[in-house]
Request: fold
Amino acid sequence: MAPPPSANLPLGERVLALAQTLQFAWFSGHLVLLLCIFRYSLSFITFNYTTSTARFTYRTAFVSAALTYGIVVYKTWRARQKVGAKNVGVIGLLADENVQYLAMALVWLLSPQYSIVMLPYGIYSVFHVATYTRNNVIPTIQPNKAPAGASPGTKSQSANPLAEAIGNFVKQYYDASMSIVSALEITIWARLFLSAIFFQRRSWILIGIYTVFLRTRFAQSSHVQESFRMLESRIDSLVGAQGTPPAARSVWEGVKTGTRQFHDATDISKYTNGSAVPKKTS
Reply:
């Protein structure tokens, strides 16, 4: 993340310099996304989520999401071009987490409304906005200047209380929030599956696309893997209880077997000379 403008500049020039960066557009996109989710949630809890205002805020949220992830993908591409890195190919491109979320943002933008799909983007945006505010916005508005007479490059020892509070919030809740995101992503698949059972509009197309997305997330994210393990353990416990019909146990075993076969058949490392997709903790 780029540093904030120089503390020696006047406030107006610092703010202008910050606002002219591509990173500020990324921050603004996340902020607009959060505002849209908040506005849409008001419509949702009052059962007015089919109104024109609700539809507009829903679509705007995913326009903002596509903008923010598109900026990250673009900056990554520019960075690779500057250092002369070789082309990563289609598999390498699709393995990029930001490309995945950009693609899904465009899918949700063009698809029927599913309110739950906004939540993972919203949780990510909370931390992106918080981190950018701490590292860039606060130092721009209220920079920590070095004491008078200090040598060049000396940093002030005083820390902004708000910046410290934001930093503590991110450290304390980030991992737990990523676990919530992974659980939501699994829940979204279940929601799409129910839609497909009832043959709702575009549901079979959506569940196919989303299954590819979730399979990729499982390969990369330890949080998604842990959420699947917890789900499997809970269902095992329920099915293994006394009084559970043998047919239910047989169905569950069939589901687990089919899921493992699907996992093995779609293991990308088999088709990339054994080089597995890099795992992430998000």
